[in-house]
Amino acid sequence: MNTQPAVIVGAGHSGAKAAAALRKHGWTGDITLVGDEPHAPYDRPPLSKAVLLGKKSSDQCAFFPNSWFDDNNIGLRLGTSVARIDRQNKRVVLADGEDVPYGKLLLATGSAFNRLTLPGAELDGVWPLRTPQHADAIARSLKTGLRVVVIGAGVIGLEVAAAAVELGCDVHVLEIAPYAMGRSLPLAVSEALVAEHRSRGVDVRFGVRLASLEGKEAVSAVHFEGGETIACDVVVYGVGVRPRTELAEAAGLAVDNGIVVNPLLQTEDPDIFACGDVCRYKSRIFGSALRLENWRNAEDQADTVARNMLGQEKAFDEVPWFWSNQYDFALQVAGLPTLGEITIPATSGAARLFLSVTADGALRGASAIGPVRDVASPIRKLKAAIARDETLDIRTTGSSSANVDALLQN
Ligand SMILES: Cc1cc2nc3c(=O)[nH]c(=O)nc-3n(C[C@H](O)[C@H](O)[C@H](O)COP(=O)(O)OP(=O)(O)OC[C@H]3O[C@@H](n4cnc5c(N)ncnc54)[C@H](O)[C@@H]3O)c2cc1C
């Protein structure tokens, strides 16, 4: 039983799910969920997939029906920004000056997309992709025969490219780094993924330095530093995000590429917690501090943090996992494949697997590309193997290895 008020800053994925978990696990006090976006909490992944393809409207991405908040006695304050945390008096101050007292405070402020800073980035037809407004605008502008430039070969850029191809657009993907999704994938997996795009006619280029975007009102071309130009009708960019740590920092909490928390997802102030994209926690499995930007992490941390706000003392230690859908295949990734020095290829049904191991064989990550039905099961088993800290016999690399097969049998 907990009758104190809980305040959650950020009515996004992890904030909303934490509110639900607090109620589910027995929080009886007031719960106030404050979000600066105008929308009730929604699921972001469909924005770069089903919404672009016209298979789902952005309104259909809401996590809960509107009545759910009243039914669960959760005070939802939308379009409202928290301006300050007053730790001494245990209250948050909203942008309009109103105070909201808390017993426990959860910071679930997520991340903000990096804006494109090139000259011409403000032209019509140039879009980031983070919110329903962005997704609706891009979906309206992707039409058969249009020329689309995607800046950034991260997961969002590649999903936009896949959707644009499916809609009959002519697509170029321009990336400054030497390969795609370099922060989360080893080279071999990235190459396999890019090959899928190229085989569908996408022009994917790496090491591209852009100089400017051109257009009268709407964008009509992108210019490279070396002088080359690509004519285009639409530009979509995905050039990374940064954690929204401003509030925590101003409140004197430790921030280091994310809000620093202990294994209970608690900051050094025992009444303030953090979860989701903004949270930097110490992973026992990997022995280092991690900040993850994915759906599963938002989901899992929301549940754990709610339990800890209720005093259950549950350490968070999940193996990272994320997915992406592109064309007719899924990419699923468990663990941290970029920590591997060797990539061992394998197959499972129609899925291509890539196991990432250290020089002494420790399994650090696994990636799979293929139909979702063939990808999900081996990745689940390999995720469990990463949690068990399995070691592989790297002398048997090749099309597969004996103990990879054994891991997949389990
Ligand atoms: C287009 C897109 C597609 C994605 N696809 C995938 C995918 O396929 N697979 C996958 O694993 N992950 C995917 N993700 C990532 C996943 O959606 C995020 O990791 C997840 O949303 C993080 O949840 P969060 O609660 O930390 O942040 P968010 O959901 O961003 O919520 C944070 C909220 O806090 C609000 N906020 C911040 N500061 C304040 C303040 N001071 N006052 C009030 N409100 C504030 C923000 O406006 C935001 O609404 C995708 C993300 C995007 C954008």
Structural write-up:
The chain is α/β, with parallel strands linked by helices and 410 residues long. The chain has three domains: 6-112 and 242-309, FAD/NAD(P)-binding domain (3-Layer(bba) Sandwich); 126-237, FAD/NAD(P)-binding domain (3-Layer(bba) Sandwich); 328-409, FAD/NAD-linked reductase, C-terminal dimerisation domain (Enolase-like, domain 1), CATH 3.30.390.30. Helices cover 24% and strands 28% of the residues. A five-stranded parallel sheet has the order 3-2-1-7-19. Helix 1 (13-25) packs parallel to helix 7. It starts with 5 loop residues before the first strand and ends with a helix. Bound molecules: flavin-adenine dinucleotide. Flavin-adenine dinucleotide binds next to helix 1, helix 7 and strand 22. Flavin-adenine dinucleotide binds at residues 9-15, 34-37, 44-45, 47-48, 81-82, 108-110, 129-130, 156, 244, 247, 276-278, 293-296, 298, 322-324.
